[in-house]
Every structure is written in C-alpha cells, then in structure tokens.
Design a protein that fits this description.
By secondary structure, the chain is mainly beta. Helix content is 0%, strand content 49%.
Amino acid sequence: PWPHASTGIYATGPADIKNNIIMGFRVGACSSCPSGAKGNPAFVRFNEFHSNEIGISLCETTNIVRDNYIHDNYWLGVLVSHGACGELSNNLIIHNGDSARIATAGVLCWQDYMRRPDLNMTPIIRNNTIHGNRGPGIRCRYVRGGLCTPVIQHNLVTWNQGPAIQCETV
C-alpha cells in the first residue's frame, strides 16, 4: 500500500528526531545506505512508529534509539545493518512482522560482508520490551562471516513467534 521508496524521516547526517508519529511509509525513519553519514549519530527518541513496512532502519551510523514505541509494522520493527551500531534501548517493540516473510523480527541485525567487508557492527540492544512479534524477538543474521559481537542485555523478550534471541552466521 506504500510507494516502494517512501520514507517518513530520512536522515543523512546528524539528526535529533523526537516526538513524532510516523505511519504509512515503507520505512518510518531511515539513515540509508550509503548514507554518507558514517559515524554521525541520529538521536531517535520519544517517537511512535506504526503501520510502516519497517519501523526504523539504521545503517552505517552510530545511532541512539531510545524511548520509542515501535508497533504493528508489517515486516520489521527495527533493522540495524551495515556497520550501524550504537544503542537501542528502552523501546517498546511489539506486534511487528509477518510470519510469511523471510527474516521478519522485532529487531533484525543484518550484515553481508561481501557487500560491506570493511564494516563490523557492535549494536548494543538493552532494556527493551520486545513482545508478540511474528518472528524472533531479536534476530542477528550475518552473511559470509565477519567479526560481529552484538551486546544483548536486560531485555524483556516474550511471546514472539520464534526464538527470543536468534544469532546466526550463514
């Protein structure tokens, strides 16, 4: 129902994204690859992301994503990819995903080392409530190896349709 490339908020540099309701887009908020923003933080706080295909997509930046309500998105609640790191904390991530889609999850950390061999990611995922997603609560998927070490601490992960936390290298 949404245009293929539509984005509610598109950040290519430092941004302070607060107090918004973002709905009905392919991606609610995005720092897109290649963003040119490598290392520049996006601060995403106190927002509501719902009814998008992907709630938040973070790429190649050091992001601070806190205190958001991320719910009822059709594929993923949060996508963390290609060297994105930083902190995903104190978010309510519920009822995201579609069990008929590949790699659906509340939170998906994804890296393909053939596409971005120079980027290793160490996302910090802590103090989130991740509930009732149609797929794993947190899924970390690394394609073709790499030195990825996500830090996953103190989350409440319940009633998801899949493992609470699934980390894999394919």
